[in-house]
Structures are given as structure tokens and as C-alpha cells.
Amino acid sequence: MKIIGPDQVYFGVDDLNACRTFLTDYGLRENAPGYFEALDGTGCQILKRDDPSLPEALPTATLLRKTVYGCVDQNTVEEIAAELEKDREVKRLEDGSIEAKDDAGFVLGFQVTIRRDIKLVAERVNSPGAEPARLENDVAADPNGEALPRTLSHVVYFVPDVEKAEAFYVNRLKFVETDRFIQAGPFLRPGACRDHHTLFLIHTPPHMQGLEHIAFHMQGPTDLMLAGSRMVQKGYESFWGPGRHQLGSNWFWYFNSPLATHFEFDADMDLHDDNWVSRHVDLNAANSQLFLFENREKWSPGPPPEG
Ligand SMILES: [Fe+2]
Q1: pTM higher than 0.85 for the full model?
Q2: What span, in angstroms and rounded, lies between the C-alpha atoms of 158 and 160?
Q3: Rounded to whole angstroms, what are the CA distances from 222 to 12, 37, 268?
Q4: Are 246 and 289 contacting, i.e. CB atoms less than 8 angstroms apart?
Q5: What is the CA(302)–ligand 1 centre distance, in A?
Q6: Distance between Cα 265 and ligand 1 center (Å)
Q7: Are 160 and 104 in contact, with CB atoms under 8 Å apart?
Q8: Cα(113) to centroid(ligand 1), Å
Q9: Strand 107-112 vs strand 64-71: parallel, antiparallel, or unpaired?
Q10: 3-116+146-292 belongs to which homologous superfamily?
Q11: Domain range annotation of the chain
Q12: Cα diameter, the chain
């Protein structure tokens, strides 16, 4: 099935203004009321918790209401509808998308992707022994660099029954397992995506079911560090990072948010194809990151000594 990955994530929130400020500071742009998008048009829709257009909420503290997957074409949307109609209700919405619940109770949408084709440069690094990526007088460190999220990367769900949730994505939607934390759950990528994961499932008690975090891809590690530093300077609380994961190799920096989930900046995730063999590793600190840093205030060695 030619599913690319999450296009849009819907939240029902209490404090629209706090969420609006957070999402703007995180680097998303409000291009329609309550819709905050990355450079390619993927993003987050926030509405008041009691907005009648939102699907029913889960009976937990999560503010997530719907995850909309982008598909390569309408044929894929129809293929998914035909598959899911075998055993559940599939709503057809006016915009051509469909809506159904997964086996954990999360509401999903499927649509022809709204991603815009963006042509941007990668982070350029000069490395001895290789051709320079930046030539003479092309300076890398720009304190005014925009450092904006480029595209929605992945969502991570807390689920009470990982096996059941995983079976739905693997058997029904043809997601592929790329790696697994044995005590937590699988990293999954859909059929039309090479990213290490667009979905990670974590086993938790039923009362915790919900969205653990959402991540957007940045240009590279430098933009990730710059964007994260700015969040700290604005007073947001770092949850984890900066660092670099082992599974997926993505650089990461997570922040607490008023959307009752963590927002992650990520960069430089591994790509995979069907030749990849999934690694099964224990969930522990050593396997959760290659390295981990903690932000500290900017510092200077000070002015030269007098005299
Ligand atoms: Fe993540």
C-alpha cells in the first residue's frame, strides 16, 4: 500500500492561545486558522476540545484526536477503504479522504498527500578527505538562520496492547518493521516511505494511551541545535536531548508542550528498503541514544586579562 506517512495531526485543546504560541515558536506557520504547517505543508490542526468537527476523544489525557496519513494516489485511499470496510466502519469525508479507527482505538484518516514538493539544500559539511561541501567564503554559522521544520516525520503512540496495534498496521496497512525495542514495541514504516520510522509503538497501561510525541525533520543537526536552543531561550522545557538515537540514527531534541505531548526536532534519519533486517534490542539507556547532551547557557572565556 502506497502510504507515505503522517500528513496532519489533529488536536482538541483547552488553551488555543498557548498552543498557538508554542507551535509558532517551534517553527510551524499558521497558514489557515488553527493549522500550523512545516515547509512542505504537513502539520498540526488545533481546535477547541469540544469542537463538533473533531472525532471522539480517547478516554485518557491525550489531546490527539486524529492522525491523517498521506497516500501516493486516490487508488491507494480506495484500496485502504476496501481493506478496512471488511470489519469496521469507514467514513467517506467531503474532501475525498476516508476515516476509520485502528485496532487500538486511534482515529485515522487517509488522503492523497497534501505534501508540497520542496526543493531545499541539505546541511553542508566540510570533511577532510572529501570534496568540500562549502567553498571559500561560504560561512556555515548563521545566528539569523531560520531553522524551520521541513516535514512531519513521525508519531509515537502509547498503546495498551502492542501486539494487537502492531498487527493492524503490519497486516492491514502493510507497514514494515524496521527495528524493535523488545520491552516497548516496533518501529514501523509504511510502503511508500524509506524513513526508518513514521510510527513507533510503546507498550503502556491502558490509562496512558495516547500520543507520546510527534516529530518534524529539520535540515540537519545544526538547524536542530539552533531551533532547540531558541526554544530553551524562550523558556520551554527540554524533555530529552539534544542527542542522537541509535535506532534510526536521527538526531533528536524533545520539548514539553501545552498539547499534552512532546514535540521533537529530528534530523538525518536512516533510510531503509526491504533488504533491511530488523534489529531487536533491549530498551535501556545505552540503546536509546548514541550520545546525549544537555543544553547550557551560552558562555564566553571572557575578555583578555588587563595589563
Ligand atoms: Fe521520535
Answers
A1: yes
A2: 7
A3: 33, 21, 11
A4: yes
A5: 38
A6: 8
A7: yes
A8: 21
A9: parallel
A10: 2,3-Dihydroxybiphenyl 1,2-Dioxygenase, domain 1 (3.10.180.10)
A11: 3-116+146-292
A12: 84
CA dihedral 60, 65, 1, 269 (to 10 degrees): -80
pLDDT band, residue 307 (cuts 50/70/90): low
Q: Tell me, what amino acid is at 257?
A: S
pLDDT in tens, 194-216: 999 999 999 999 999 999 999 99
Tell me the CA–centroid distance for residue 86 and ligand 1, in Å.
32
What are the C-alpha distances in Å from 6 to residues 3, 189, 254? Answer: 9, 11, 19
Identify the residue whose cell numbers are 463538533.
Answer: 52
CA–centroid distance, 298 to ligand 1, in Å, is: 26
**Phi and psi torsions of 25, nearest 5°:** -65, -30
Centre a 10 Å sphere on the Cβ of residue 25 and count the other Cβ atoms it contains: 17
253 alpha carbon – ligand 1 mean position (Å):
9
Partners of 228 in the beta sheet? none
Q: Measure 214 CA to ligand 1 centroid, in angstroms.
A: 7
DSSP 8-state assignment for residue 290? S
**Structure confidence by residue, pLDDT tens digits, 164-182:** 999 999 999 999 999 999 9
DSSP string, 184-211: TEEEEE-TT--BS-SEEEEE--GGG-EE
> Beta 35-37 vs 3-13: how paired, if at all?
unpaired
Q: How far is CA 1 from the centre of its chain?
A: 21
H helices present in 108-254, as ranges: 162-167, 221-233
